[in-house]
Amino acid sequence: MNIPLLDLKAQYRAIQPEIDAAVAEVLAAQVFILGPTVLAFEQACGAYCGAAHAVGVSSGTDALLMALMAEGISVGDEVITSPYTFFATAGCIARLGARPVFVDIEPTSFNLDPHKIEQTITKRTKAIMPVHLYGRMAEMTPINAIARKHKLVVIEDACQAIGAEYQGCRAGAWGDYGCFSFFPSKNLGGAGDGGLLTTGDAARAAKLVALRNHGMEPKYYHKIIGGNFRLDALQAAVLHVKLRHLDAWTAARRRNATRYNQLFRTAGLAPDVVTLPTTPCAEAGRADGEPCHCHVFNQYVIRTPRRDALRAFLAERGVGSEVYYPVPLHLQECFRVLGHRAGDFPESERAANETLALPIYPELSDAQAECVVASIREFFKQ
Fold first, then answer.
1. Three-state SS letters, 142-155
2. What pTM, to 2 d.p., does this model score?
3. pLDDT in tens, 75-121
4. Neighbouring-strand partners of residue 178
5. Distance (Å, rounded) from C-alpha 323 to C-alpha 139?
6. Please, what are the domains in the chain?
C-alpha cells in the first residue's frame, strides 16, 4: 500500500467547489493585494485564535521577522528560543543582527523547558520566542511569568499549532505576538505561502499593518522602514474557505493519533523501542480517547534509537515519513559563530537523532494507519 506523508489532493477534492468559487470571486473582482478578501480572513482567523487583532502576511517566516522588527530588535540584542525547530525561528533573529540564545527542550513535549530559561537571561535579552512544536503548545504560564518578571516580549512561534490550546486559551493569544504559517503542509494550509500575526495590542497591530507594506502610512509616507510582507487576496480566499473546515480536520487528526496509539499498544512494541507522542491531557492521567484540545497534531512524531534504519524500511514499503529536524540549530554551520558544540543541548540533539513523523493527515484511512503500524512492527520483529 502506498501511503504518502501528506495527501493534499484528497483535501482539495473534498472542498473543490468551495475553493474554486472563492478563487473565481477574487479573479472577478481583480483585487489581488490586500483589500476586503484579506480583511475578512484576518477578522475570521483572529476570532478563531481568540486574538483581538490579526494581520495577514506573506509567510510564517515573515510573521516572525515582523514581530521582531516591530519591537526594534537588532544588533546586540538577544532572543531566547529553541534549538530544535525549523530554521526560520532562529534565522529571523540572526537576520536582524540579534543573537539567538538557545534553551534546551523537554523530552516529551519537544518544547522549551521553562526551568532552563531564566539562567540564560542577560541585560541584552529582549524577548522569548517559544515554539509550539508539532502542534503542542509550550508551557506558556511559566514562560509568561518569567517574561513579566524581566520585562521581556513574548513572541509565540505558533506556525505549527493553529487551534491548539493551553489552559483553555488558544495558541497566538498568550504572547505579545502570535506567528502563524499557512505553508501548504500546515493544518490550515494555503495554495502557496502565507502567514498571520496576532496580538492583543492595538498599537502593535497598527505598526504591523504599516510594516507589512513598506512602513507606509498613509500612502507614500514612511515613518518606519518595513517590507513587502503582504498576504495575497487569492491566498486569503483559499484560507478563509479552509478555516471553516479546520475544526473538523483537527478532530480527524486527533482521532488518527488515538488510532495510532491503540494500534501501537496492540502491536506490543515496548516504550524503549518506540516512544509515542503524548498530550498534556494524557500526562495528567486522562484516558486515551477522551476529548483533548491541547494538541492539534500537525505531526505525529515517534521516537526510536533505530530511526534512520526504520525510515529506510518504511520507504521500501511505500510508507511516507519525515525527519523533523535532523540537525539542531546550534550545530548548523551558519550558527558556528555562536560557539556551541555537540552536547550543549542534549535533549535537542537526542530528538534530532530519534524522531520520525508518520502520516497523520485527516483523510488517512484505518487501513492505511494499520499498514503503517504493521510495517513498523515488522521492522522490529526482524
1. HHHHHHHHHCCEEE
2. 0.96
3. 999 999 999 999 999 999 999 999 999 999 999 999 999 999 999 99
4. 156, 198
5. 24
6. 8-243 (3.40.640.10), 246-381 (3.90.1150.10)
